[in-house]
UniProtKB/TrEMBL annotation:
PANTHER family (alphabetical): PROLINE SYNTHETASE CO-TRANSCRIBED BACTERIAL HOMOLOG PROTEIN, PYRIDOXAL PHOSPHATE HOMEOSTASIS PROTEIN
Alphabetized PROSITE patterns for the sequence: UPF0001 (PS01211)
Record InterPro entries: Ala_racemase_N (IPR001608), PLP-binding_barrel (IPR029066), PyrdxlP_homeostasis (IPR011078)
Coiled coil: none
Family recorded in the similarity comment: Belongs to the pyridoxal phosphate-binding protein YggS/PROSC family.
The encoding gene: PROSC
Lineage: Eukaryota, Metazoa, Chordata, Craniata, Vertebrata
Annotated Pfam families: Ala_racemase_N
Physiological role: Pyridoxal 5'-phosphate (PLP)-binding protein, which may be involved in intracellular homeostatic regulation of pyridoxal 5'-phosphate (PLP), the active form of vitamin B6.
Keyword line: Pyridoxal phosphate
Modified residues (N6-(pyridoxal phosphate)lysine): 32
Protein name (Swiss-Prot/TrEMBL): Pyridoxal phosphate homeostasis protein
Amino acid sequence: MWRAAELGVGFALRAVNERVPQAAPRLGAVSKTRPADMVIEAYGHGQRTFGDNYVQELLEKTSNPKILSSCPEIKWHFIGHLQKQNVNKLMAVPNLFMLQTVDLAKLADKVNSSWQKKGSTEKLTVMIQINTDGEDSKHGLPPSGTIAMVEHIKANCPSLEFVRLMTIGSFGHDLNQGPNPDFQVLVSLREELCKKLSIPADQVELNMGVSMDFQHAIEVGSTNVRIGNKTAAELAAPVAAAQER
Ligand SMILES: *Cc1c(COP(=O)(O)O)cnc(C)c1O
């Protein structure tokens, strides 16, 4: 459970980050179903990035007066599937920082124009979600569409800034069979993308890994993990181990 004690998670990773700054994986605390008080407590421990996967829940949580007054530097990520009809609602989220799940050019266009209308001086950062295992039940762009999507955003969406590739990937992969192939797909996609579009590799981060598999994800190159169900103690040891290699 993501209990109050969890909230050292920010601490756990920061301690690691200080030791190995160039390889620092960053923690997105997944706050879906968690009450506002837990978010405030985590914020008090130094956690700044939080993600939710339903637009309505995110809007309510981020508009909570206690969160608004206690967490001025909070950065909200939307991590769920986004339908076009919900874009305007999402754009109303206070302190929205990142949309993790862009998977259609038309969605990117709509988010771009909606963000523009809001008149923000900052760009909205976005990730492209890739469906690395090709399962129909999962959202995301097929890997082969990645380069065209990045080009589309760069050419047509001046209010968006593409920063990362994201995947959910297969659950319960047995590491005895070797590395998770979904993570490998994302790693090699970045390589291909950066080469084709002449982008320095360190400008495209990889967001992959959840409570169950974040340690492996970091080992194979993830820079950002999404964690909903770990205590600080559970996180600290494996993350530290992953970094020390
Ligand atoms: C819930 C959720 C997570 C977190 O999963 P845990 O198993 O709780 O760590 C990560 N990513 C997405 C998209 C989610 O919806």
